[in-house]
Amino acid sequence: MSYPYQIKTLEGYKKDYETSIKNPDSFWGNIAETFTWKKKWDKVLEWNFKEPSIKWFQGGKLNITENCLDRHLEKNGNTPAIIWESNDPDEHHRVLTYKELHFKVVQFANVLKNNGVKKGDRVCVYMGMIPELAIATLACARIGAIHSVIFGGFSAQAIADRLEDAQAEFIVTCDGAYRAAKDIPLKSVIDDALVGNKTIKRVIVCTRTRTPVSMIKGRDVWWEDEIKKVETLGNPDCPAETMDAEDVLFILYTSGSTGKPKGVVHTTAGYMVWANYTFVNVFQYQQGQVHFCTADIGWITGHSYIVYGPLSAGGTTLLFEGVPTWPDAGRFWDVVDKFKVNILYTAPTAIRSLMGFGLEYLKGKDLSSLKVLGSVGEPINEEAWHWYDKNIGKGNCPIVDTWWQTETGGMMISNMANVTPSKPSFATLPLPGVEPCLVDEAGNELLGNNVSGNLCIKSPWPGIIRTTYGDHERCRQTYFSTYENKYFTGDGCLRDEDGNYRITGRVDDVLNVSGHRIGTAELENAINMHAGVIESAIVGYPHDVKGQGIYAYVIFDETHGDPNLSKQDIIQTVTRIIGAIAKPDKIQFVPGLPKTRSGKIMRRILRKIAEGDVTNLGDTSTLLDPSLVDIIKDGRI
Ligand code: WT7
User: Fold this and answer.
1) pLDDT greater than 80 at residue 234
2) Is the pLDDT of residue 235 over 80?
3) Mean per-residue pLDDT for 20-38?
4) Mean pLDDT confidence for 138-142
5) Residue 7 in contact with ligand 1 by CB distance below 6 A
6) Which of 171, 217, 549, 591 is 20 to 30 A from 373 (CA-CA)?
7) Residue whose CA is closest, atom 17 of ligand 1?
8) Model-level pTM greater than 0.85?
């Protein structure tokens, strides 16, 4: 495949950027022309941020899987689409060419149909990182079912909440998943999530770990048995369902500043164009290259840069089941060496963690195939940036620092490899189609350079969130109401003297722990479920590896039991209600929380204490009980 819209020079970037903002219709219309449509659109863009109502390529009809699979068959049918590397270095890897992947997607799409899945139905996918996860996801898209992939680390309770919110009727899962030396019993977690569930009709279980599972009659079926059934039907084809450009492609849940996760909705055509365009331009992908994105498909990074971006570009995407530090901290470098990876896209937390293991794990690993390095999920500190540049890129690979969000569908602010310059710890410049602005608390736009404020986007790009599932008002409130006529990102940001953007972190009550978003309200709700907890407040603090660590202040009823054991119990409660990713790093029992007279927790003070910055706590005179501050300070962990 060639990519006529791949920008080649800094001048080209400037020109395309300008056109994209001045004339989005012709700019995106020209790019969309290069995709496969069943019917061309009538109108490129119609929007208002008030409702919000955003429509890209209205009237157009297509199926994203024809763009990710069918259109590559003729010329690239034998090109590897997915290279899969097991958690276990001794297990043989798998390669699926475009032909093979197409065959398997079509086959599983027929399995879904056979099990009663129809266009528009919500299918929850809860699997480990095996090719069948990508296959299940694409099979949903093939028949127009809406996938909602849930990361394999979420707990039964978290799944139950998401199933309920999405009113999901089908689940695709595995018996278990391998993760380092552990075997996670996914099906058993699903069984727990389904206690009391009224909507799920069918659970399809794929074999991976051979962990014993209980199969419920009439509800649960094996993936492998169902495949056999469609094989006997003889006709392996499954025509791609005709979808409207704005039909929902998927729901992906993410945390916000309220207690309940939001189902971010992305639609078909705009998301496809955005995932593809950003993939091709930011990484400067060349046909034949091996792209290794280390995220899990359960997060947006995996959706856009393991599945939809690379496959829509006819690329080769590497899917890795394991973790960076097992069996040892050289695992990523073995994978890069083994498959001659050209593009490595990972998170600062992984880089910092590997940095901590020292250089010995790099010895003897041939990383010379690497051409481009990427970073995503959180701000990358300069030390990690330089380590990545020097030891992994050997000073020869541009690092793209890509800022974006679940809600943006794809990268928004990033340098482009070998095209626009990098600057350590800066995401640098907006991609074509992205019109960022900084505003102060009052919503005034901050013009000129050398300013910092809250990051907003002034106009829609093709991959923008369309709604939050089942609750459009929530979408409006969260993203489009803080500042009139702007999409509000929730991030603080500065713009330097050259117009480069540096993301400084969330300005709302959302933590970024190891590149994962954790809503403080959601976590507090989970902690408060523990019988001995009266009240709690969560703040983030700087953490060497995770970026942010989780600090919990808890008012505990001491009559309830041994406080030390209780801390373990609280951690257990969080693991059960949300999942292990949300476990607090530190728990401090406190007699009370610093509140204003109106009952609002002064998080600023708690944050400072957690950070260890206790000398200058600012004005505490408005507190209901200022003496609490000293007690909390003294008990700091
Ligand atoms: C939040 C979005 C985008 C996929 C992974 C996370 C932070 C993301 C960067 C970056 C600084 C970043 C922001 C953003 N973030 N990328 N390159 N530099 N911060 O997706 O879970 O939706 O989280 O991650 O705070 O708002 P997400």
Assistant:
1) no
2) no
3) 98
4) 98
5) no
6) 549
7) 403
8) yes
Decide whether any atom of ligand 1 lies within 6 Å of the 374 Cβ. Answer: no
Chosen domain end from 211, 241, 271: 241
Residue 569 falls inside a structural domain: yes
Q: Which residues of 557-577 are buried (b: 16+ CB within 10 A; e: fewer)?
A: eeeeeeeeebbebbbebbbbb
Lowest mean pLDDT among 232-241, 319-328, 414-423: 232-241
Q: How many residues does the chain have?
A: 637
Q: Is the pLDDT of residue 58 over 80?
A: yes
Q: What is the DSSP annotation of 512-554?
A: EETTEEEEHHHHHHHHHTSTTEEEEEEEEEEETTTEEEEEEEE
Q: 489 near 436, Cβ under 8 Å?
A: no
Phi and psi dihedrals of 89, rounded to 5?
Answer: -60, -20
Q: What is the pLDDT of residues 520-550, one digit of tens each?
A: 999 999 999 999 999 999 999 999 999 999 9
Which distant-in-sequence residues (6+ apart) come within 8 Å of 264 by Cβ?
A: 251, 252, 253, 254, 300, 406, 407, 465, 468, 469
Structural domain contains residue 200: yes
Residue 286's pLDDT is: 98
Q: Cα dihedral sign for 566, 569, 573, 579? A: positive
How do strand 467-468 and strand 262-267 relate by DSSP bridges? antiparallel
CA quadruple 292, 296, 301, 304: dihedral sign: positive
Q: For residue 258, what pLDDT is reported?
A: 82
- Establish whether residue 491 lines the binding site of ligand 1, counting it when its CB lies within 6 angstroms of any ligand atom: yes
177-201 pLDDT per residue, tens: 999 999 999 999 999 999 999 999 9
578: domain CATH number? 3.30.300.30
Across all residues in the chain, what is the average pLDDT?
96
CA distance 511 to 520: 7
Question: Is there a cis peptide before residue 327, judged by omega within 30 degrees of 0?
Answer: yes
- Ligand 1 center to 264 CA (angstroms): 15
Is the CB of 296 inside a 6 Å radius of any atom of ligand 1? no
pLDDT tens-digit map of 456-470: 999 999 999 999 999
Q: Do the domain assignments include residue 143? A: yes
pLDDT digits (tens, 9 = 90+) for 357-391: 999 999 999 999 999 999 999 999 999 999 999 99
Q: How many domains does the chain have?
A: 2
pLDDT attached to residue 619 = 83
Query: Does 75 fall in a domain?
Result: no
Cα of 589 from ligand 1 centre, angstroms: 31
CA of 438 relative to ligand 1 center, distance in Å = 17
Boundary-marking domain end, from 180, 210, 241: 241
**Ligand 1 neighbourhood includes 106 CB (under 6 angstroms):** no
Please give the structure tokens belonging to residue 310: 């690379």
271: nearest Cα among 151, 370, 404? 404
Distance in angstroms (rounded) separating the CA atoms of residues 290 and 288: 7
For residue 602, give its domain range.
511-634
CATH of the domain at 176: 3.40.50.980
Is the distance from the beta carbon of residue 300 to the nearest atom of ligand 1 less than 6 Å?
yes
